[in-house]
């Protein structure tokens, strides 16, 4: 009866709009939240702050682990990682039978697609195409929403310049400016214009914060970072996502200067909620409230609950710390009722904004599900995304695109990733990356499948030689590879990492290609024209390949449409336009390496120059710089033009260049603008990205590309932790990557 009454109260009001900023009915939602809060017991409230795991741990039998019982008792506010659709309906029905009938919110890691698998997020960032990224997230969210998920633990906006860290694949790379634009695009795609639209879901910006700066590139490790660096390198994408209206945030596992992020009041309350005025809900990372005890920063569950809630965190993902410790913390006077209420309000607001009170089954419509999941146009988008993410690093003699009227007719496709679908375990399947139980290796179009059709259509002859499967090579593999290469005019070698080599907890201490893969290269007949296609989740070191192969194409982990997208790029149907979102080092010994470093007092000009900041055994410059990527055409840049050479504070600085396609085919170029502050109060990075535009130019076409810099773009966090621009000289650079640029200076007066 109570349920019916509550449903009627809530149904008479309409919950629409987003949680932050642009919402249309926050007041409306607030009124409803207060009415509900007034009816809730302490247990009901603590229940709403508790998130438990769904059938990924219990299997399809939802009654296991007492899940249904806990939901019925109102002890669960949210369920994460639940897959079975029918069981979601059962769980939601059960929640409605609990004391106040508060609907559950279902959360899921929708990292690079839901049922249709797109390239990994790092690959998407390499497209530098924000419209594309937004469209990918729109599809991913629509599929997840149609399958009963209401909330994704995405985007991961952690900046990192440590490729040893397995999770770089889930982010947008090393740069806070690019990372901010990607973060906004993802939030827009996931949440759309209106959270109550049943084709959108809530975003969760993670991991707050500095998770990508773990010492040694080791997952979960401690972070020691200055406040200045935190604000410049780590926080910008979080702020951008918060301002784009992201409904929720997630804590990170790490400590920051000794404080576990889940109980970091400075981060959550002072910066996120205070300075940025963000009003959403923040969930812990998996058991991170409980891990405050392991960190040694909380004594027991009561202490952990006190510290996490007091810092401003709201929902406990699976550690049960709030269930075990919050009541006691209240009884002992360590937290107040008002603090608990505030956290509960944030959870309820999310549920109202998603429209779950108006119709708890709005995301559980089986007809919509059938009509939405894995539509053919989603696959089309996956193909477009994979092709636009690929980065051409080397193309000596213009070996690519493959030319049907050229001298190379017989092509040998060789390597462990040429046609692999031997491993049924989704986590181990190379093209897919990590993180989604729906990965189905049978749905991947392999390079062999796609190239067979596409190349033979054009008159090429293709042989496929799969060798070194499951990361082991025998002498037979090497001789097969050698024979296949010998009998062909050109070799396409598919090398890289396995699916299990990346993602959470999958850090590495070397970035080299596996030894057995390098050995395949050694077995190739010398001088054989070779294209290496690299399937990777992170920057890697492949010196030998760079010497032996004329062309190197970074394909990343491209998702279901791997083969088709690869065929599009290799045949020139798609002209590659991806640019690296992370520096590729020469070797792991250079890590951490990033383009936006400080100059030092002794920058090295040439390798071997003593008493400068370098190495004895290799240059300090990277193998491939941030922002780098070739095309099948060439672009030339004019000198930079600026309307004047001195600007007053508050004035905007206009910068433009003319970019011309001087090659033989149409292509896309990412025009990048960097600055350097030459006269700040503290040392500033040698380059900082402040703008980019992706343009398309027909053969012979020129375009003027203009950028506008504001005073904010020239500002930085100074010694007094004030965000300010200093008067003096600035350099401005424009080019197609962070190394090869046009340069000019101006004064800020
Ligand atoms: C990861 C999060 C993820 C969560 C839920 C954690 O281990 O760090 O990124 O969202 O699990 O699956």
Description of the molecule:
Among the domains are: 255-335, no CATH class; 377-590, 3-Layer(aba) Sandwich (Rossmann fold), CATH 3.40.50.1700; 635-748, Sandwich (Immunoglobulin-like). The chain is 31% helix and 17% strand. It is built from 22 helices and 27 strands. The strands form 7 sheets. The protein has a 6-stranded mixed beta sheet, with helices on both faces. Strands 4-3-2-1-10 form a 5-stranded parallel beta sheet. Helix 2 (26-37) packs across helix 15 (337-353), helix 8 runs parallel beside helix 9 and helix 8 packs antiparallel against helix 17. The longest helix is centred in the N-terminal third of the chain and has 17 residues, at 130-146. It is globular and about 80 Å long. The structure holds beta-D-glucopyranose (BGC). Beta-D-glucopyranose (BGC) is lined by residues 80-81, 109, 153, 206, 285-286, 504.
């Amino acid at each position: 009866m109570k349920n019916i009454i509550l449903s009627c109260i809530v149904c008479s009001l309409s919950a629409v709009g987003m949680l932050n900023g642009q919402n249309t009915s926050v007041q409306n939602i607030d009124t409803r939240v207060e009415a509900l809060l007034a009816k809730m017991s302490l247990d009901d409230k603590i229940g709403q702050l508790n998130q438990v795991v769904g059938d990924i741990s219990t299997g399809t039998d939802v009654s296991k682990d007492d899940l249904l019982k806990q939901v019925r008792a109102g002890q669960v506010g949210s369920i994460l990682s639940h897959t079975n659709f029918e069981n979601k309906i059962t769980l939601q029905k059960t929640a409605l039978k609990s004391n106040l009938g508060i609907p559950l919110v279902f959360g899921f890691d929708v990292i690079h697609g839901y049922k249709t698998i797109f390239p990994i997020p790092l690959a998407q960032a390499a497209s530098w195409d924000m419209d594309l990224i937004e469209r990918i997230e729109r599809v991913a969210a629509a599929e997840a929403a149609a399958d009963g998920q209401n909330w994704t633990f995405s985007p991961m906006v952690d900046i990192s310049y440590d490729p040893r860290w397995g999770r770089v694949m889930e982010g947008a790379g090393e740069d806070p400016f690019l990372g901010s634009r990607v973060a906004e695009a993802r939030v827009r795609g996931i949440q759309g214009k209106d959270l109550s639209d049943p084709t959108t879901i809530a975003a969760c910006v993670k991991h707050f914060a500095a998770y990508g700066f773990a010492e040694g590139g080791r997952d979960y490790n401690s972070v020691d970072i200055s406040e200045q660096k935190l604000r410049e390198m780590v926080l910008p994408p979080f702020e951008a996502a918060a301002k784009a209206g992201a409904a929720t945030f997630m804590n990170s596992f790490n400590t920051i200067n000794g404080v576990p992020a889940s109980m970091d009041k400075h981060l959550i309350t002072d910066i996120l909620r205070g300075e940025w005025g963000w009003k959403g809900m923040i969930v812990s990372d998996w058991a991170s409230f409980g891990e405050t005890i392991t960190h040694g920063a909380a004594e027991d569950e009561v202490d952990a609950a006190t510290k996490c809630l007091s810092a401003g965190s709201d929902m406990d993902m699976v550690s049960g710390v709030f269930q075990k410790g919050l009541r006691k913390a209240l009884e002992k006077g360590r937290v107040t009722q008002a603090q608990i209420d505030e956290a509960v309000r944030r959870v309820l607001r999310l549920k109202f904004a998603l429209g779950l009170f108006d119709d708890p089954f709005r995301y559980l419509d089986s007809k919509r599900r059938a009509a939405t999941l894995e539509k053919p146009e989603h696959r089309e988008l996956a193909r477009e995304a994979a092709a636009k993410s690929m980065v051409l690093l080397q193309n000596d003699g213009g070996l690519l695109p493959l030319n049907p009227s050229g001298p190379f007719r017989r092509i040998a496709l060789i390597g462990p990733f040429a046609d692999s679908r031997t491993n049924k375990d989704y986590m181990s399947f190379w093209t897919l990356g990590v993180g989604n139980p729906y990965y189905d290796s049978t749905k991947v179009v392999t390079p062999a499948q796609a190239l067979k059709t596409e190349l033979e259509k054009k008159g090429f002859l293709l042989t496929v030689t799969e060798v070194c499967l499951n990361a082991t090579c025998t002498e037979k593999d090497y001789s097969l590879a050698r024979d296949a290469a010998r009998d062909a005019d050109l070799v396409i070698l598919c090398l890289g990492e396995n699916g299990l080599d990346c993602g959470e907890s999958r850090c590495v201490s070397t970035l080299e290609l596996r030894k057995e893969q390098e050995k395949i290269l050694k077995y190739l007949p010398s001088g054989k024209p070779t294209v290496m296609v690299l399937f990777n989740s992170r920057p890697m070191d492949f010196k030998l390949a760079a010497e032996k192969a004329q062309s190197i194409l970074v394909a990343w982990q491209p998702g279901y449409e791997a083969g088709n997208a690869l065929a599009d790029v290799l045949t020139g149907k798609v002209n590659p336009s991806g640019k690296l979102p992370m520096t590729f080092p020469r070797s792991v010994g250079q890590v951490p390496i990033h383009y936006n470093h400080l100059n030092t007092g002794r920058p090295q000009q040439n390798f071997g120059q003593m008493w400068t900041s370098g190495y004895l055994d290799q240059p300090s410059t990277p193998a491939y710089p941030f922002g780098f990527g070739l095309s099948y055409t060439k672009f030339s840049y004019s000198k930079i033009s600026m309307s004047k050479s001195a600007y007053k504070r508050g004035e905007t600085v206009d910068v433009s260049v003319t970019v011309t396609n001087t090659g033989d085919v149409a292509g896309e170029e990412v025009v990048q603008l960097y600055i350097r502050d030459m006269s700040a109060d503290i040392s500033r990075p040698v380059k900082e990205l402040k703008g980019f535009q992706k343009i398309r130019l027909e053969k012979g076409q020129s375009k003027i590309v203009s950028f506008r810099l504001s005073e904010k773009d020239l500002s930085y966090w100074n010694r007094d932790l004030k965000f300010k621009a200093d008067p003096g000289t600035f350099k401005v650079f424009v080019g197609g990557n962070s190394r090869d640029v046009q340069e000019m200076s101006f004064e800020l007066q």
